[in-house]
Design goal:
Blueprint: H1 5-19, H2 31-41, H3 46-59, H4 63-68, H5 71-78, H6 85-100, H7 109-112, H8 120-131, H9 140-149, H10 159-172, H11 178-191, H12 210-213, E1 230-241, E2 245-246, E3 249-250, E4 261-262, E5 265-268, H13 274-279, H14 281-290, E6 294-297, E7 303-306, E8 310-321, E9 329-330, H15 341-351
Parallel strand pairs: 1-8
Antiparallel strand pairs: 1-5, 2-9, 3-4, 6-8, 7-8
The chain binds a DNA duplex (11 and 11 nucleotides) through residues 37-38, 40-49, 80-86, 89, 116-122, 125, 137, 139-142, 144, 158-159, 182-183, 186-187, 189-190, 195-197, 223, 225-228, 254-258, 305-309, 340-341.
DNA sequence: AAGTCGGGGCC
DNA sequence: GGCCCAGACTT
């Protein structure tokens, strides 16, 4: 264990008490609010998650209120935040807490980590903040700060690295105030020891920081590999009927956007023109089923929607249908459905003009 | 152990 | 363009 561990915790906490942001979940030790905030903030910047937290607390002030909502309503409120399995697990766990645990959250790390959507980080955060259990959190901020200050070059996304950083974080933890200490470490990473161009010359740790000493700040933390981004080609068929109805389908099964809605989707292996679209069996079935009379391409240049690991080259095709399309919904009700941002952008542009 | 899962902000 | 974000789950 590093000799200056006690100094590290003290300096960190002192810094935190001065510089911490005033966030709505801070100051509470109600596990419902802490749990909700932690799920929302997984892989999500505070600035992006904050409005969603406020919306959720207002719509669902208690875990019972969240459990009583429908998954559809929860997904609609989550729309735009991404990683939608978080929303589905959130709703599932709310029901589990209410129906199986008498509305009471588990009281320690071991119990919390069994909840769906709650892993090592989130269980540690809730346990330390709500119950003062000395469990160290390790998130992206912690990896960065510890790798730099203590000069740890083990890749943070390797099995060995995860083990090593968790162990180091646990040794450094101030057990007299684990919740405050954990938040201080993360806040320091988020606000001072940032990924790009941190102000090392004024840093409170620059007399001790291994990365600063060895001029390795820009190389830490070490991360293995780059992801292989795949290209996919989406063709959305936007059906317009004479009585202002259209067709939306729910995405089921595996893959992106599970549980969200979209227009009928035809995926191709490259960008296609109208002739090629009409050659597709799936299109012919759709055209026959809904008696599509004509089809026109809305955007000549594809919309490129970028996800972490795939780029979606998307074209919207507008089709006119007979009045009697089945399972249709009114266009004015489209906004009631949770849809991917890619579709929300199109809907806003197309139906409001 | 490697893949998968979103969207946005920053450089 | 690439990287990262108060990570978790599946295969």
């Amino acid at each position: 264990m590093p000799k200056f561990a006690p100094f590290f915790a003290n300096k960190l906490t002192s810094w935190y008490l001065i510089h911490k942001r005033d966030l709505p979940w801070r100051g509470s030790d109600n596990p419902y609010y802490i749990w909700l905030s932690e799920i929302i903030l997984q892989q999500t910047r505070v600035a992006q998650g904050l409005p969603y937290y406020l919306k959720f607390v207002e719509a669902f002030p208690t875990v019972e209120a969240l459990a009583n909502a429908s998954e559809t309503d929860v997904l609609k409120l989550w729309q735009g935040l991404g990683y939608y399995s978080r929303a589905r697990n959130l709703h599932f766990t709310a029901n589990y807490i209410v129906n199986t645990c008498n509305g009471v959250f588990p009281k320690d790390y071991q119990g919390l980590v069994t909840l769906k959507g709650v892993g090592d980080y989130t269980a540690s955060a809730i346990a330390s903040i709500c119950y003062n259990e000395p469990t160290a959190v390790v998130d992206g901020n912690v990896y960065r700060v510890l790798s730099r200050v203590f000069g740890v070059h083990t890749p943070i996304n390797s099995t060995q690295g995860k083990k090593e950083f968790k162990s180091l974080a646990q040794q450094l933890l101030d057990e007299s105030q684990p919740g405050t200490y954990n938040q201080a470490l993360m806040e320091f990473g988020a606000r001072y020891c940032v990924p790009q161009n941190p102000e090392c010359s004024n840093c409170i740790f620059n007399d001790r920081c291994e990365a600063y000493k060895t001029n390795a700040v820009g190389q830490l933390p070490v991360k293995l590999k780059k992801r292989n981004v795949k290209k996919r080609y989406f063709n959305y068929i936007v059906i317009l009927s004479e009585n202002d109805k259209t067709l939306l389908q729910k995405r089921t099964g595996k893959g992106i956007w599970q549980g969200l809605y979209e227009f009928p989707l035809l995926e191709s292996t490259s960008e296609i023109n109208e002739f090629q679209l009409k050659e597709m069996n799936a299109f012919q079935e759709l055209a026959k089923k809904h008696q599509l009379s004509e089809i026109t391409l809305y955007n000549e240049t594809s919309v490129i929607h970028k996800l972490s690991h795939q780029h979606l080259y998307t074209r919207f095709w507008i089709g006119s249908a007979s009045e009697k399309i089945t399972n249709s919904i009114s266009i004015k009700n489209v906004k009631e459905y949770a849809v991917p941002v890619l579709l929300q952008n199109f809907i806003t542009e197309f139906f409001s003009s």
